[in-house]
Specification:
This protein is an alpha/beta fold and about 210 residues long. It folds into 2 domains: about 80 residues; about 120 residues, Formyltetrahydrofolate synthetase, domain 3 (Roll). The chain is built from 6 helices and 8 strands. The strands form 3 sheets. The protein has a 4-stranded mixed sheet with strand order 3-5-6-4. The chain has a two-stranded parallel sheet with strand order 1-2. Strands 7-8 form a two-stranded antiparallel ribbon. A hairpin with a 4-residue loop joins strand 5 and strand 6.
């Protein structure tokens, strides 16, 4: 946790924000940036993020304090979203459903993540061919990857360039209506925080009671 104001460090994270604004604008809708404000933030840090967001295409940028104030801390954000929703827009999907599975994957990889291209494992190639044969190729695509980077690699921060996306496997959620690609080492097990809760589960040796579950 960072407890001292550090505008330079905040600035190093801004390219990631700018990339996300550009992604949302590709859909033809106005973008509202919500800055999750905490007690450890300085007003200058929050102002820096809001100003930079507006300069890079956001319609509005609002500091929200839901963590401390509950619903009241999001009123200004809700009003900004309402204003944006009432602006003219040119909403459109980014690829036609008639595109092939690989075309959809490669569009997301290059246009959304900023990758140079896509590499497919043998297993993924087999599954893509089978889903195409079964007629599932008209379904939209989801990508299962780390949330810690725009790429498949959590170590690549900011808005990385010069990388390729490895598709390890393909899965189908036909009932839900989409296909999804597993990128890199991504697991389909339930996601865990950086410090999983089980670290704090223990037994009180005096009473025999389990502690840390709730």
């Amino acid at each position: 946790m960072y407890l001292k104001e550090d505008l330079e460090l905040v600035g190093k994270g801004l390219p990631n924000l700018f990339h996300h604004i550009s992604i949302a604008r590709k859909f033809g809708v106005p973008v509202v940036v919500a800055v999750n404000g905490f007690a450890t933030d300085s007003k200058a840090e929050q102002a820096l993020v809001c100003k930079a967001a507006l300069e890079h295409g956001a319609a509005e940028a609002v500091v929200c304090r839901v963590w401390a104030e509950g619903g009241e801390g999001a009123v200004e954000l809700a009003e900004a979203v309402m204003r944006a929703a009432n602006q003219p827009n040119d909403f459109h999907f980014l690829y036609p459903l008639e595109a092939t599975i690989k075309e959809k994957i490669e569009f997301v990889a290059t246009e959304i993540y900023g990758a140079d291209g896509v590499d497919y494992s043998h297993e993924a190639e087999v599954q893509i061919a089978e889903y195409t044969r079964l007629g599932f190729d008209r379904l939209p695509i989801c990508m299962a990857k780390t949330h810690l980077s725009l790429s498949h690699d959590p170590a690549l921060k900011g808005a990385p360039k010069g990388f390729r996306i490895p598709v390890r496997d393909m899965r189908a959620s036909v009932g839900a209506g989409f296909l999804y690609a597993l990128l890199g080492k991504m697991s389909t097990m339930p996601g865990l925080p950086t410090r999983p809760g089980f670290y704090d589960v223990d037994v009180d040796m005096e009473t025999g009671r389990i502690i840390g579950l709730f």
